Amino acid sequence: MNDMLTAQELSDATITLGVYKTGKSSGKVFLSAILAGMFIALGYVGYLSITGLFENTNIGRIVGALAFPIGLMLILIAGADLFTSNVLIHMALFKKKISVGKVLKNLGIVWLGNLTGSLIFVFLIYFSGLFSSVNNEGLYHYTTHLGEYKVHLGIGEMFFRAILCNFLVAGTAYMTYASRSVPGKVLCTILPIWVFVLTGFEHVVANMFVIPITYLLSDHITLGQVFYNLIPVTIGNLVGGIIIAGAYYVLSTHKSEVRI
Questions:
Q1: Which of 19, 24, 23, 30 is nearest to 90 (CA)?
Q2: Is there a contact between 188 and 175 (Cβ–Cβ < 8 Å)?
Q3: What's the CA gap between 225 and 212, in Å, rounded?
Q4: Are 170 and 85 in contact (CB under 8 A)?
Q5: Per-residue pLDDT at 28
Q6: DSSP characters for 153-164?
Q7: Through-space distance between the first and last CA atoms of the chain, rounded to whole angstroms
Q8: Are 192 and 83 in contact (CB under 8 A)?
Q9: What is the dihedral of CA 100, 86, 233, 236, to 10 degrees?
């Protein structure tokens, strides 16, 4: 059996998945989204922990970024609902298999669930003391510097970096759907997500962890600045994902006939 779906099979599978995701009960979607938020936070903790070990931050980022894809692997293989990949349900909307209301309901619940899961992980990490300046000064300084940097970006910078981010994240999720095997999904995930982390693109669920943990660790940012980042990044991620979904919908459903 071929390990990879064809382009048409991939499109059909993504549309079917969109129908399935929007057909689940709200409680199951919310719980699944909480798990996804925790998984992304876990990947971020791995990235920050490894990066904090290096005196040379650039080398640390290159090595540490290899840990971040663990979060998306858990989501795509074990199963969970992540806002940035769930944006692909728009393919089912374009196919008229689901309504706009179902899309908005699903993405709204998933966003709140991702935030809840991320915040659960924030409190677990904060009260564990692992990120404190006393226990790990390098990790503390790198984490708080990153969180403070993100909330001081301009709105336009956040928005366009978020669009670019979901070109990679939604594109990666779409690519993993093409593989029928776990090794295939892992290989499809590692390099694109590694590049996403190194570029400095903005991912709303990742930011749901790193900015709130910075808020608790440092007195240099306010609660208002947390949402100042999350709102434009959410919109940018949504736009980037819709572009990916729309492009592949058009490519898979508008084909010229071959005449012999």
A1: 19
A2: yes
A3: 10
A4: yes
A5: 97
A6: S-HHHHHHHHHH
A7: 29
A8: no
A9: -60
Amino acid code (one letter) for 244:
I
Instruction: Report DSSP letters for 100-114, one per residue.
Output: HHHHHHHHHHHHHHH
- d(C-alpha 213, C-alpha 206), whole Å: 11
Which residue is listed with tokens 């729309």? 246
Whether residue 40 contacts residue 81, with contact meaning beta carbons closer than 8 Å, is answered with no
CB-CB contact of 44 with 124 (8 Å): no
Sign of CA dihedral 11, 14, 20, 23: negative
Q: Read off φ and ψ for residue 217, nearest 5 degrees.
A: -80, -30
pLDDT tens, 183-207?
Answer: 999 999 999 999 999 998 999 999 9
Instruction: Kindly state the average pLDDT of the residues 145-150.
Output: 95
Q: What is the pLDDT of residues 214-224, one digit of tens each?
A: 999 988 899 99
At residue 219, the pLDDT reads: 85
